[in-house]
Write a structure and sequence with these properties.
Blueprint: H1 2-18, H2 58-64, H3 68-88, H4 115-137, E1 159-160, H5 167-178, H6 187-204, E2 208-214, E3 222-228, H7 232-244, E4 247-256, E5 258-265, E6 279-280, E7 303-304, H8 314-317, E8 323-339, E9 343-358
Parallel strand pairs: 1-3, 4-6
Antiparallel strand pairs: 2-3, 4-5, 7-9, 8-9
The structure holds 2-acetamido-2-deoxy-beta-D-glucopyranose (5 copies).
One 2-acetamido-2-deoxy-beta-D-glucopyranose binds at residues 245, 274, 276-277.
Length: 359
């Protein structure tokens, strides 16, 4: 009998895990029956379609329906998160690959409460805050514009002006939309909420101040400054470093009146993660061998670097299975000359290059 309930709970959790996976918006026609949909077929959504997107929870549908423009901004956020994830993981065993025939664009990989799941959650929460704030400053949304609050503080040697990008609105929207699917009363929800917030802080913490001089030619008697969002690439780099140093945690419960549930390091000798660190609850699945059910492609056929000791090195990437070396023709521009005026003339140089592929 006990087993029956365990199985039922596990099933319910699996169903629930699919909900709220808003990054599917990068390829909104899923789940797909036909094989004619891929991430590349980027369908532009309109707000009327929001209620049909089964993977969104109710609050996400409401926010999706704000306007056509808002749906498209959310969609762009999902797309950018996936692009950045694929860039950051291009040398890893799991290269953030997407699959077509699943209810989740990443297959079942994120069912594990793993480091990779921590990274994807942080990055997508960050990407949404970023795209929303960017759209605000471009005047694309009715709900927001430039950040007027920075002007209240008056600095001495320069003045606020121009359009400061409103990361606070971006964060607020991201919290409302992305966190809507999480339940802090279950372990996974607690972990995801922590990582979502860490992602948003990675954006806020890297806002830049840029200034422009005004005044008589070159005098710079007036300096006007505003706050600008960092490139999403920078945010991806920061989160990648956090991913490498992510803390393995467990949930501890303290009964003091009401239940207080917190994430604490699994090993007591490890420092407590702060709000910008990524945290995970489970070890990762094996990314070496293909697993259709989880949408893992395995590393067979991946290009590796024979001389690298890192993740892209043949030893690690090929998981000890060895690799094959093929000679490939390589073409590049060479012997470039400047031709008066104003052209650069190059020749094409052909060479043979070794190319290593995992067995
Ligand atoms: C896939 O869909 C596109 C339009 O979205 C269509 O042009 C194409 O013929 C379809 N391909 C197949 C194999 O059905
Ligand atoms: C959080 O911890 C990381 C190291 O894990 C450190 O680099 C960072 O400065 C800390 N942040 C804060 C706000 O304390
Ligand atoms: C998805 O498609 C692949 C082949 O394209 C297949 O091997 C795999 O079993 C499918 N997965 C699911 C969950 O249907
Ligand atoms: C990920 O690796 C697979 C091979 O395992 C390759 O087919 C695919 O193109 C790669 N995807 C990206 C986004 O690099
Ligand atoms: C391979 O790795 C070495 C050592 O890390 C590096 O210098 C080289 O640029 C890499 N080659 C390629 C093609 O990435």
């Amino acid at each position: 009998m006990k087993l029956f309930w365990k199985v039922l709970c596990a099933l319910l959790l699996l169903v629930e895990a699919v909900m709220g996976n808003w990054w599917n918006l990068a390829a909104p026609n899923r789940p797909v029956q036909s094989s004619n949909t891929s991430v590349e077929t980027f369908t532009t959504l309109h707000k009327e379609s929001c209620h049909r997107l089964e993977y969104l929870v109710e609050r996400q549908k409401q926010l999706c329906m704000l306007s056509d423009k808002m749906v498209q901004v959310i969609q762009t956020g999902a797309q950018q998160a996936i692009d950045e994830c694929q860039h950051q993981f291009r040398n890893s065993r799991w290269n953030c690959s997407t699959v077509d025939n699943s209810t989740d664009i990443f297959g079942g990989v994120l069912k594990f409460k793993s480091r990779e799941s921590a990274f994807v959650h942080a990055l997508s929460a960050a990407a949404l805050a970023h795209t929303v704030a960017r759209a605000c400053s471009r005047g694309e949304l009715n709900e927001c514009s430039c950040d007027a609050r920075v002007r209240k503080r008056t600095p001495r040697h320069w003045q606020w002006g121009g359009c400061s990008e409103d990361i606070r609105y971006g964060e607020k929207f991201s919290r409302d939309f992305v966190d809507a699917k999480e339940d802090k009363d279950n372990d996974e929800g607690l972990m995801n909420l922590h990582n979502n917030e860490a992602g948003r802080r990675a954006v806020r913490g890297r806002m830049q101040r840029v200034c422009k001089c005004h005044g008589m030619s070159g005098s710079c008697s007036v300096r006007v400054c505003w706050r600008r969002l960092p490139q999403l690439r920078l945010v991806g780099d920061v989160l990648s470093t956090r991913y490498e140093g992510a803390s393995h945690v467990k949930v501890v419960e303290r009964k003091r009146g009401k239940n207080i549930r917190k994430l604490r390091p699994l090993h007591p000798d490890i420092k407590k993660p702060n709000k910008t660190d990524l945290v995970y609850l489970e070890d990762s699945p094996d990314y070496c061998e293909p697993n259709d059910e989880l949408g893992i492609l395995g590393t067979r056929g991946r290009t590796c670097n024979r001389t690298s000791a890192g993740l892209d090195g043949c030893r690690l990437l090929c998981c000890g299975r060895g690799y094959q070396t093929r000679v490939r023709d390589h073409e590049e521009k060479c012997r470039c000359r400047f031709v008066w005026c104003c052209r650069v003339h190059c020749e094409i140089c052909r060479s043979k290059r070794d190319h290593h592929v995992c067995n």
